[in-house]
Design goal:
By secondary structure, the protein is of the alpha+beta class. It contains eleven helices and eleven strands. It has two domains: 8-172, Jelly Rolls (Sandwich), CATH 2.60.120.10; 183-293, Orthogonal Bundle (Arc Repressor Mutant, subunit A).
């Protein structure tokens, strides 16, 4: 039986009572990273730039695509996972104790509040949880911001605590799909087609299909597609396309290789001034100032 290769060991650093943070920034080498996941702690792992695989023992591996999160909880055993990903990729991780998550999300006056966090039922039943799901654009921006250190050490620590708490709030926010307002989402096939639409946009974001073309590809009419997309992902198809384009533009600017005009053209703008206006509206600064600040 082959042994796991362990070259680099990374640990979560406590930033607040019961909350720890792990940030693995871009590296120029591809050595696997060993991460210890303690018993009775909840772990959220986020792939920022590309696919990451997690090896749990010699016989079990779970891939995690870019833009996904990985929820890990084991009530009986600590876990050593080997994370493997190409150079220039980033990984963010948050660890939170059971006591801390209860103090943050459950009202002491009403024990029934636990019903609002379905995963707690799994914890109460002492069953391990390994769950992956997509990360929305708002959470992705917060995750990206954790890697930008623009303040003094103490001030940055305070800022990171606020960002991590907001990430936890977004992740554990329970907002059930309103099947009364959007009844066609009761159909599982429709939801799968909406997921398909998101995948198409993610693959063709530089030159995305129009809403009409997207509806033809998925087999949903434009109304069902747009309203269903909003219910599932919390934003319209158009806004998701714009977020995807501008987030990719921001990453290009961080690399500092392309000019502002080149970035505009690469993400599909024919007029750089329109790109500059959209970027400033989305991020509160111009592309040029953003690149200089990196």
């Amino acid at each position: 039986m082959p042994e796991l290769e362990e070259k680099v060991i990374k640990s979560f650093i406590e930033i607040n009572d019961g909350i720890k943070l792990l940030l693995i920034d871009k590296r120029e080498f591809e050595s696997p990273i060993s991460i210890k996941l303690n018993v009775n702690e909840i772990f959220l792992l986020f792939g920022i730039d590309g696919e990451i695989s997690f090896q749990f023992g010699p016989m079990y591996m779970r891939p995690m695509n870019e833009g996904q999160s990985f929820f890990i909880y084991n009530p009986t055993n600590s876990i050593h996972s080997i994370a493997k990903f190409p150079k220039n990729h980033r990984l963010a991780g948050i660890s939170i104790s059971l006591e801390r998550i209860h103090s943050l999300f459950l009202d002491d006056e009403d024990s029934n509040e636990s019903n609002n966090l379905p995963f707690l039922s799994g914890i109460t039943m002492n069953r391990p949880i390994y769950e992956q799901k997509s990360v929305d654009s708002n959470m992705r921006l917060l995750l990206d911001s954790l890697f930008h250190k623009r303040l003094s050490n103490n001030a940055q620590k305070v800022a990171n605590i606020g960002k991590v708490l907001e990430i936890l709030a977004l992740y554990f926010n329970v907002s059930e799909v309103d099947t009364v307002a959007c009844p066609f989402l009761k159909d599982e096939e429709t939801v799968q087609k909406i997921h398909q639409a998101k995948s198409i946009i993610s693959e063709e974001w530089k030159s995305p299909p129009t809403l009409k073309k997207l509806s033809e590809k998925t087999g949903l009419n434009t109304y069902r597609l747009n309203e269903g997309f909003k219910q599932v992902y919390g934003t319209t198809v158009y806004n998701y396309v714009m977020d995807t384009k501008l987030n990719n533009a921001r990453r290009m600017l961080e690399h500092g290789i392309d000019s502002v005009n080149d970035v505009a053209f690469k993400i599909g703008y024919t007029n750089p001034s329109h790109f500059i206006s959209a970027f400033k509206k989305r991020f509160g600064t111009t592309p040029r100032k953003y690149r200089v600040s990196q």
